[in-house]
Design goal:
globular, 6 helices, mainly alpha
């Protein structure tokens, strides 16, 4: 499903390093939500497959990738799938919790105060890092027309959730199925 993720991990486990080639691509992005949803489901299903294959022997994966590599592998495979599955629930909880604690007194010596603060810090850091990457990309690529797209990132993250649940369903019911996405459609829109 995501051969690039699997090959990258296999190469890393063999001691090789991979990098991104600095080039432009002429690959076409999906032009409608239905195709985008199916493509994301395919990618998330592939991340789940990659994670399961390489976690058959977690100690060997740990030894071959090292501690930091192992943690990064968890984040970019299982972490991406889990965050897409749970994002609306966690976002709803954060909003509810912020509304609930507003105006309530807190003690610096109370563990729950520190736990709440840490949770909100992680939440803000995740959103902040994504926004920083988007801003940096727009600046580096000199794409001023895309500034307004930053406002759509929260909606994008919410749209990933149905794709993640579809990926999980397809993983359980059609392991080797492949969501094909059409190419050449944007030329039809010109």
């Amino acid at each position: 499903m995501t051969e690039d993720a699997d090959l990258g991990i296999r190469l890393a486990r063999l001691g090789y390093k991979t990098a991104t080639v600095d080039s432009d691509t002429f690959e076409e992005a999906c032009v409608d939500c239905h195709d985008w949803h199916r493509q994301r489901a395919r990618w998330l299903k592939g991340f789940l497959q990659t994670w399961l294959v390489h976690m058959r022997s977690p100690l060997a994966t740990w030894r071959q990738l090292g501690g930091s590599g192992f943690c990064v592998f968890q984040a970019v495979t299982l972490g991406v799938v889990a965050s897409a599955l749970l994002h609306p629930l966690l976002l709803g909880y954060a909003v509810w919790h912020l509304a609930d604690i507003a105006g309530k007194p807190h003690s610096l010596f109370d563990f729950s105060t520190w736990a709440e603060g840490f949770g909100l810090m992680v939440f803000a850091a995740g959103y902040g890092a994504s926004l920083w990457i988007a801003v940096r990309t727009i600046r580096l690529q000199a794409l001023p027309a895309f500034w307004s797209s930053i406002l759509t990132l929260p909606a994008y993250w919410l749209l990933l959730t149905p794709s993640a649940w579809l990926a999980l369903w397809q993983f359980a019911t059609d392991l080797h199925g492949w969501n094909k996405t059409p190419h050449g459609r944007s030329r039809l829109l010109d």
